[in-house]
Amino acid sequence: MNFFHNQDKARRKTTWLVLGFILSIVAIVLLIDAVIMKFASDPQVIQNISYINLGITSVIFLGSVYKYTQLRAGGKSIVDLMDAIPISRDSQDPNYRQLINVVDEIAIASGIAAPMLFVLPQEQGINAFVAGYNPNDTVLVVTQGSIDLLSRDELQGVIAHEYSHIFNSDTTLNLRILIVLSGLFMLSQAGFLLIRTRGDRKGNVLLVGLALYVLGYLGVLFGNILKAAISRQRESLADASAVQYTRNPQGITCALLKISQQGDAALMQNKHAEDVNHMCFSKARSISLTDLFATHPKLETRIAELDPDGTITAEFLATGSKSKPTVATKPKNTPPQGNNFITGTAALVGTQVIASIGNPSAANIHQAQQILLSVPDGLKQMLSTVDDAQALMYAMLIAICSKVDYTKINITDHIRAQIQVCLSFKELTDHSCRATLLELATPTLKKMDPASTDLFLKNMYALNEVDNKLNVFKAIMLTILTQRLHADAFKHIKPQFSNFRAVQTEISCILWFLALQGSDEADEQREAYAAAMKTLDPSFALGLDDQGFSVDDLVKSLTRLRLIMPNLKEQLLHACVTCIMQDAQVKIDEIALLRAICACLDCPAPLF
Question: What is the pLDDT confidence band of residue 322, given thresholds at 50, 70 and 90?
């Protein structure tokens, strides 16, 4: 699966969804006009048909706008709708700790922002879903039944399934489907109100109301059929992806078998379960009329596709286990194996890198487990509260600065003290540890209110200005924190640039930093930079000697390049690999920088 092609497909599906919505409105208006022209007894009603059309369009539009305002906060809106409860990182419940560890492992392995975790405590069925407009906005919601009844491997299979939805932009599509269907539903509700209207023109009002109700309901009906068809396709893809990521078909298969054993008890009791039905790991509501409305393939079908010879099913049934096995022990801290991913020519390596985006493997998850185990518990504890997480971020920035001036930032005495605690850990100088902590701190930092977020980001930039030396990690850190915590972080990221000409300077900045990272020799830097630029457009005239970019330039460049089309992101990453491979040597810092660039571009790169 190619991440960039999937992103482009998802974008096109969204376009077709919007177009289909517009065509539905036109069709409904025309059909209602035909009904009125045919059956209306009052000529004045026919004369005012243009106003009726305007009213119909307005009702549908306002219905969608109303739903959009409900969902404008992205994943957080769904959490509020479902009354889900946040899961604290400092929870001592072993089942919650297991969930947090599994999510952290997949987040680090895949290179995607760790989602905020929530639980539906009243739901005893096994289920989960992700929601959000972009990877930085994602929330992961699990039922209490999933936490209580699934083993570690089963839980990993379910979470990997949900991550597939993030990689394939299903979360954005799911939210937009909700918005579209709400507009059509509002039309049928308006028709129902008109049917109940009393007055001198009862006959004509009844006619219009009946037409609105029937056609609006038919719109919702066909919309739900479309929603179900899209959802079934995406669920099958996510099942296959979960096995690809974990290399363990038994985990997700046994989770589905446990859901099958639960029967109707697996369904959600939440009053908004229908709204999120198409987002869930398994169906949240029972659809008895026809398979046309089923948002998920049948459990038997999904299990058969994952376990074609029935071996896993037979073993599961033989054990007769309907409850959760003993919580698995922590992974053993074994020395990381050598990673030979980056091998071959620049073209070959570029192909390998692109193929890995959005496609983590079981080996990547194992690597992530080892990285997590290497992070001191004292630093992990700093991820539990907002103040401590802020202190950790300040300390990470300070650790790579040559001088520090606390008077430049507005912080509490507690945060100041915790900064000193963090700085006592030598691991803060290790890039891998810093990158891991940056990934895992995001969910906690998102709990800040807007004012606190603005102050935190202002302080981070102020610290950078105290020691405004050229340091790539500082630029990456500031970019990622800004992208993930800013007030606009939840919004859908719409591509704005369809060619490289509009972002030529920004591309030059990125490749300039990569060239400097790869060698201390000026001639080698020029060769790497020129080779990379040539892969994008031979006519690009900016040379390495013409540049003099700052950390602030790199932050702005990464932010702007985030808005290029998916196919351009693919080409840009090929150019980055070309720059790295020009001297036929790959440094750890170069790979770390490449992965960080991927994160800033919303391209989830696994551990190379």
Answer: low
